[in-house]
Amino acid sequence: MRFSAILKSTDFYFQTIFSIFSSFLIMKKLICILFFVSVSFFLFSESVIFGTAKEYANNTIIFYKYADGITCMKEKLFDLKFDEKGNFNISIENQNITYVFAEFGTYFAYIYLEPNKNYEVIFPEYVEKGNVDIFNPFYEPLKIHLGINNLKDTDLNFLIMDFDYFYEKYLSLNIEKLIKNGLNTDVEEFIKSINKKYEYSNNKYFQQYKKYRIAGLKNIVTQKKEESALVYSYFSKSPVLYDNPAYMDLFNNLFESYFDNMLISTEGPALYTIINKGHSIKRMNAFLSQKKELQNTQLREMVIMKGLYDCFGNRHLSWLPLLLTLDSLAISTKYEKHKQISQNIADMVIDMTENTVAPNFELPDTNNNLYELKNFRGKYVYLQFANTTSIVSQQELALVKKLYEKFHGNCIFLTILTDENVEKAKKYLKKNKYTWGFFFTPINSKTVSDYKIDTYPTYFLINQEGFLKMSPAPAPSENIEKYLFKYLNEN
What does pTM read for this prediction? Predict the structure, then answer.
């Protein structure tokens, strides 16, 4: 009996253990499933943009983000395509709050995308950019915050849109008074009231945005005389907010031409020696860490990158020491973002300089056949960016024709047109018997951006290996013929 009881007891024990173990396995599996679901949710979070804009039917708008807040290099995010009825719907993988923008018609339109949120976007009435605007290098598009249906007052886009309205209205009505009288105005009352207005919001991104916009206002009323104190109060003890426009706008304003100004001060000789002779980021850090407001390593590296970036326009400094100092920072920094910014700065200042590789492109010709720039290696290429609706471009095209007739056996002539009406441009070419290589690209395309085109026409001379020989090159009316004779005879 005892033995039987023991067996029963043992059997019950093992059943219990097995039951517990099974439950444990089930719980473990459930935890793993929940873990992978949560990780997947984090890794594959999306923002969705949808809506209808009949005026934009059958069009495509390219949306970008800034690769960083110092160079403001554009980085393409997605193409928003409108169907024949103007409907659009796209999902964008998005891990963090992202400021995205597009340039179309007369607008520079932007919106803040939060992960895992849907946005029914309202596009403005389309206004075509006229030729006067297209060929005006000083033209500034109208900056607008894209509308969104069914916004709540707690939504990030509402908060920023609402805040910007009151902030910019106050600034525009009082700017002269603020500059002249500074703190002897009602600015403190305005700051107090606008802080109170948004007390209800616990959106961290917005509160930081508001904080740095208000700090920018303080910089105006103190006539930039208390910048060190502002840096110490708002930057030295705070993390760097790389993706917050208000933070980066104020940072760039406070540290504009920072090294350029220091070079003409009593600190200039020491800074010049560090950059021009040592290229040492260690010495640079030691030099700047003497300043009370630059004790934060992360901030100090940002200041160094901004200072070096602005110095590339300083005719008293050669590029090589600046690049070597920047490279020293990129190698030694512990911040991955700073490696990326350093590379972006190098790309920005080196791109399109002579003896660097000409950016490749793949574009359709007049017969819709795709060609790449690298297809034309082996001969010199005289590359023109033009627009047939521009009177200057029309005049220059006639001169390019004469050059083509004289040199086309030894030099390749290519023209990239940014005409919106491609068929009309083709008729213009046929009418004028222009027969060299013509390609088409939108005026806001990557190719135009890569070549940094802001005036039409613009020219480049590319050698047989695909390197920029002259960037920019003289126009036909500026005697490019002399250089073509020189370089073609050398080869």
Answer: 0.79
